Structures are given as C-alpha cells and as structure tokens.
C-alpha cells in the first residue's frame, strides 16, 4: 500500500480528550477517529489491526470446533421479553421502534437470538453438542464510555454459544474454549490472566474472565501471593474467621458526635479504631429496604448482596428514603431499634465486634458499647464485603494482593437460564423433552486491539508485535523526487511484496523529519529507509523495537528481513 493512496491522518499534538496511551496513540497515529462519544471509525490502519485480531480469533475458534455464523444486530423486542431481559437489562440496552411502532433493540449480546434460532432448528439429542460463533458489532449505551476503544458504545465482539445435553459435555467445550482463549491472547502478545468471575446478569455459575494486566484496568484482580488463585474482587469470597475479643459486653450509651459523619471522623472523635465501628448502609434490593452492616474498615460488595438475594437490582437508597425509613440522614445511621419490615443483614465480621460504635439514627449522635443480638437485630449473617489486600487467600494458600486488569474475554456456563425461559428443548434418547444446557463465550475484539495498543508502545509511538502490525515493513524513500531513490523504492516494494511481505511505502513528498516521526508513530516492526546510497543499491534497515540499524545491499534485503522477522 502506498501512503499517497490511503488515509493515515497523523497528528503532532496529543488529543486533549484522550487520557490513556492507547487512545492517544490510536488517534495520533491515524488509526481511528471518534464520531460521537464511544463511537469510532476505524481508518485503514486501524481496520487492518482489527482484522488481524479477528483472524486470530477465527483460527482458534475454528480449531476448537466452533462454526461461524452471523446474526442480526437488529433484534425484535419480543425475544428479550421472552427471556425477561427486556425488563432487567436497564438503560444500557439501545431500544428503538420501526415505522409500525414495533419495538426493537440493537444487539448488546445475542443469547436471545441464538436460543430462538436453535430451538427452531435443533430438535434431537443427535444434533448436540453444537458450538456457534460470530464476530459482530455490539451496541451498549454505556454510562461512561471511555478510554477510546476500551469502553465504546458501539464495539466489535466475538460471541459464541454452545448447546449440550449434559453438564459434562458443556464442561468439555468450556475447557476447550478456555484453551482457545488462552491461545488467542498469547498470540496477541498480551500479558493476561484467567480469573474466576461473577456471573452478573447472565445468570450462570461457572465463569472466568480473561484479564490483561494493566494499570489502567477498570477491574481489580485479587490474587494469591503463593498459589495460582486469581479472582475478580467482585466475587472473591472472604474466608477470614473472626474471633471475639473476650472483653465483657458493656451497656449501650448515646454520645454526642456533632459533625462526625464518616467512620474515620467518628473513630477519631471517640478514640476508637475503625474496626470497632459499624458501617450501616440502607440498600434497595429489588425495591425492598435492607440495612447492610459491615465493619468500619470494610466495604460493602453490592454484587455479593445481589447474589445473596438473587436480586435483579441492588442500589443505595436515595437520601430522602433513608430519612423516611431510619429517621435521619446518612452519617448517623445504625441498626439499633430499626423498625420491623427493614431487613438487617451483616457481614460475618460484625458478629465479632464487642462493644462497637454505630450511628444512633438521630442527627449528630452515636451509640457506644453496642453488641450484635443483644442490642440490635441481625436477620442474617453473610459474606458481604470486598476482599482486601492482606486477607487470607480463599484457597487457603497465602495472602491476597491486588492488580488492575482489562477484561478482554469472558466465558460462562449458562446452564438452562435461557433454554427454560425461551423453551429451547430437544428430545433425548428416550423421547423425553429436555431443556438444552448452554454456555456462552465473549471476546471484546476491539477492546483486545486497544489492550495491545496499550501494551506495545514507547515514547515515540507504537511498537506493534508482528502478529498484529497493520503492515510488516515501512518502506521510506527519503526524497521521492530523487530519481535513484524512487526507482529503487519501486523495485524493493515489488520484491518485498513478491516475498509476501505486507509493505507500506511512504511515497509522499514530505520532509525526512516528518516521514521518520510518522514512521515511528505508526510503529511497524521494521523500517527500510532509502536515502543517499540508493545509487549504490544500499538501504538502511531499522528494527522499531530495539532501534538497531544496519545497512544492507538490496540483493540481501529479503534474506536480512527473513532473519529479523525470525527474531522479533
Ligand atoms: P465490562 O465489565 O467491561 O462492562 P461486560 O461484563 O459487560 O464487560 P460481557 O458482557 O462479558 O462484558 O462482554 C464480553 C466482552 O466484550 C467483554 O469481555 C469485553 O472484552 C467486551 N466488552 C464489553 N463491553 C464493552 C465495551 N463497552 N466496549 C468494548 N468492549 C466491551
Ligand atoms: Mg458491561
């Protein structure tokens, strides 16, 4: 490809609205352009990288025995009503109507479409198991689209779905796709880990997320410092055994705590530790009031709360409702004398607090010497808090540390969540009707591209790994108006293409400084520069990653490149 014939609008300034490296460089090097918030055009270089990621995904999915298909992005609302997600998916789902006022959604995911397809087409156990996948644009009206391609509102996903007659069969495909995913992210050159995850809105049980380790990751991974345990902190269970101090239980006393509205200010005022305090938060769990108690130095994990109640929605109660239900504003809340009808649930750690401190449900007052059960009701104890660094690892080996991760893939065992809701059944060997057992498997293809961009760069621009680089070689004649240089450039361009190198030739009449800056910014693995020694048939080869430069005779260029490409 010649640069004069394509569109690579490089920039010299870092775009103001881009705050992570991948987003800055994808814009600056002319790979993408933003169209609207979270919505992008892939320019020719960006499209090539995207396609390379897709090709790796395709190869590994095909090898794992999955067949590609393509389903519609525009989906009838009826299917989502059947599964129930029309009512529970929330504002992320893009909804629209056609000219007859029939409701549709733009596909955020495809469980509904594929389940309806398979229920119509597969009737017998003889046709199962079956694994199908597609690579397609998805739409999600994200609350905070950000970091460029990492969290878009329109993005490219590979989604796969498997159908089975038994959990063993699902387990086999799950394991096979686990391996395929590991291959895909390894081939993309990413530093990743597979972690145990929460099934969230998908309604499944066994699930793993594939996380690229990165400081800009929005997820936190809790991993053991001495075993291979790794989980999303959203779901990592806390296995700490709490013990009571043995101190005698005192009498409750109300104390004045003006202006102390946070755990730390209350603890300071009363000269106690945060561990001695109760944190009380009023939640709406599927609309019901639930007072949640955790120790002052702990944080409520709303996903654990959601799972405990098997709820569709969990949110903090709005301020006005807190006042209505508990009689005061947040900052002085507590569990003592809470009226019936408000469920009180507590993290296990709360049970072990002797003579604790909590809000008195009266503005500016706290209680001291409160003890669970004696002074306040707890309807249920459960694991409700986020794991913390230094906690015992849930597998019992070592302690927990945190790392940040970008979720690039997610695999789930769905079970019969969709087949039961949507009546996707088959006839077994005995002629009995059974719901299909399902799995689903996603990869953020465009997010993976951004994760690679985030990992492979230096101060001058991209340093693409060869598997994903938009081109193999950047051929740069310094002065295209020079007859010798131009002729040699054309000759080498043809020769390299014949040797199956994908070449980008900078045939623009630009100054050398502009060409070199752009070349480093674009970041192809190897640059071949044609300059003053063109008349002697000598060119310069530069390896982008190491900066290593050598001069070679044109006759030796192909063999030199072969050698270089073996080593990078
Ligand atoms: P997240 O927690 O990041 O919102 P998710 O749990 O909603 O992700 P899934 O529904 O599991 O994501 O989608 C499968 C994959 O699609 C994810 O692993 C991720 O790589 C990708 N993905 C999800 N949302 C986006 C987005 N807004 N932009 C780009 N890729 C996304
Ligand atoms: Mg999401």
Automatic annotation (TrEMBL):
Reactions catalysed: tRNA(Pro) + L-proline + ATP = L-prolyl-tRNA(Pro) + AMP + diphosphate
InterPro entries, sorted: aa-tRNA-synt_IIb, aa-tRNA-synth_II, aa-tRNA-synth_II/BPL/LPL, Anticodon-bd, Anticodon-bd_dom_sf, Pro-tRNA-ligase_IIa, Pro-tRNA-synth_IIa_bac-type, Pro-tRNA-Synthase_IIa_type1
Compartments where located: Cytoplasm
Enzyme class label: ligase
GO cellular component terms listed in the entry, alphabetical order: cytosol
Alphabetical GO biological process terms: prolyl-tRNA aminoacylation
Keywords in alphabetical order: Aminoacyl-tRNA synthetase, ATP-binding, Cytoplasm, Ligase, Nucleotide-binding, Protein biosynthesis
Location, primary (coarse class): cytoplasm
PROSITE patterns: AA_TRNA_LIGASE_II
Function: Catalyzes the attachment of proline to tRNA(Pro) in a two-step reaction: proline is first activated by ATP to form Pro-AMP and then transferred to the acceptor end of tRNA(Pro). As ProRS can inadvertently accommodate and process non-cognate amino acids such as alanine and cysteine, to avoid such errors it has two additional distinct editing activities against alanine. One activity is designated as 'pretransfer' editing and involves the tRNA(Pro)-independent hydrolysis of activated Ala-AMP.
Subunit structure of this chain's protein: Homodimer.
Membership in a protein family: Belongs to the class-II aminoacyl-tRNA synthetase family. ProS type 1 subfamily.
Protein name listed in UniProt: Proline--tRNA ligase
Source organism: Bacillus aerolatus
The organism's taxonomic lineage, starting at the top: Bacteria, Bacillati, Bacillota, Bacilli, Bacillales
């Amino acid at each position: 490809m010649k640069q004069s014939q394509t569109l690579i609008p490089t920039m010299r300034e870092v775009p103001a609205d881009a705050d992570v490296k991948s987003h800055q460089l994808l814009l600056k090097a002319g790979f993408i352009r933003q169209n609207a918030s979270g919505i992008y055009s892939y320019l020719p270089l960006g499209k090539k990288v995207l396609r390379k990621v897709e090709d790796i995904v395709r190869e590994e999915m095909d090898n794992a025995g999955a067949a590609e298909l393509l389903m519609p992005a525009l989906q009838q609302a009826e299917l989502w009503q059947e599964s129930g997600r029309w009512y529970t998916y929330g504002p992320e789902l893009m909804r629209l109507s056609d000219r007859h006022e029939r409701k549709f959604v733009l596909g955020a995911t495809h469980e509904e479409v594929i389940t309806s397809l398979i229920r119509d087409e597969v009737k017998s156990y003889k046709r199962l198991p079956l694994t199908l996948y597609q690579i397609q644009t998805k739409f999600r009206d994200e609350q905070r689209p950000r970091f460029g391609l990492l969290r878009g509102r329109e993005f490219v996903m590979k989604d796969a779905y498997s159908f089975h007659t038994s959990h063993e069969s699902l387990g086999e495909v799950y394991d096979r796709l686990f391996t395929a995913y590991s291959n895909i992210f390894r081939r993309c050159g990413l530093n990743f880990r597979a972690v145990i995850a929460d099934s969230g809105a998908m309604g499944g049980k066994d699930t793993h997320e594939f996380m690229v380790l990165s400081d800009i990751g929005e997820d936190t991974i809790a991993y053991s410092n001495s075993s291979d345990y790794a989980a999303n902190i959203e779901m990592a269970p806390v296995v700490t055994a709490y013990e009571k101090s043995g101190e005698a239980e005192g009498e409750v006393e109300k104390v004045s705590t003006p202006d102390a509205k946070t755990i730390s200010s209350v603890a300071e005022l009363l000269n106690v530790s945060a561990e001695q305090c109760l944190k009380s938060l009023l939640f709406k769990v599927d609309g019901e009031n639930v007072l949640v108690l955790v120790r002052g130095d702990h944080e409520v994990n709303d996903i654990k709360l959601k799972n405990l109640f098997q709820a569709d929605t969990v949110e903090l109660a709005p301020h006005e409702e807190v006042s209505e239900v508990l009689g005061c504003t947040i900052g002085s809340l507590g569990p003592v004398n809470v009226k019936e009808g408000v469920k009180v649930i507590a993290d296990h750690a709360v049970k072990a607090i002797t003579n604790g401190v909590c809000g008195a449900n009266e503005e500016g007052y706290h209680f001291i010497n409160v003890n669970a059960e004696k002074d306040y009701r707890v309807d249920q104890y459960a694991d409700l808090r986020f794991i913390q660094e230094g906690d015992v690892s849930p597998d019992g080996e070592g302690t927990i540390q945190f790392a940040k991760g970008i979720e690039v893939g997610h695999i789930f065992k769905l079970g019969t969540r969709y087949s039961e809701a949507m009546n996707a059944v088959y006839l077994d060997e005995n002629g009995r009707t059974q719901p299909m057992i399902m799995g689903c498997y996603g990869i953020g293809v465009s997010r993976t591209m951004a994760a690679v961009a985030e990992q492979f760069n230096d101060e001058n621009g991209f340093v693409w790994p060869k598997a994903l680089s938009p081109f193999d070689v950047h051929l740069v004649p310094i002065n295209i108006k020079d007859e010798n240089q131009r002729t040699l450039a054309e000759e080498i361009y043809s020769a390299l293409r014949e040797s199956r190198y994908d070449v980008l030739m900078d045939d623009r009449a630009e100054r050398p400084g502009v060409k070199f800056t752009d070349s480093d910014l674009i970041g192809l693995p190897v640059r071949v520069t044609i300059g003053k020694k063109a008349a002697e048939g000598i060119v310069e080869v530069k390896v982008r990653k190491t900066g290593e430069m050598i001069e070679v005779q044109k006759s030796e260029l192909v063999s030199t490149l072969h050698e270089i490409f073996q080593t990078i």
